[in-house]
Here is the input.
Amino acid sequence: MLMEARLLDKRREVIAEGEANANIAAKRLFSMGLSVQDIAKATSLPFEQVEALQAEQQP
Here is the structure.
C-alpha cells in the first residue's frame, strides 16, 4: 500500500511538472506570435487554458 501511495505521488508530481513546462512553452510561443489555436495544438493544453495564459500575457 505504501508503495502505491508513493507511485501515485510521483505520478502527480510528474504531471504537474509537465503542465508547468507546457505553460512555459505556451508563453514563449505567444512571444513568437503564434495563435491560441496553434499553441493549444503544439502544447496539448486545453484551448481555454491557453486563452487564460494569453490574458495573463497582455498588459
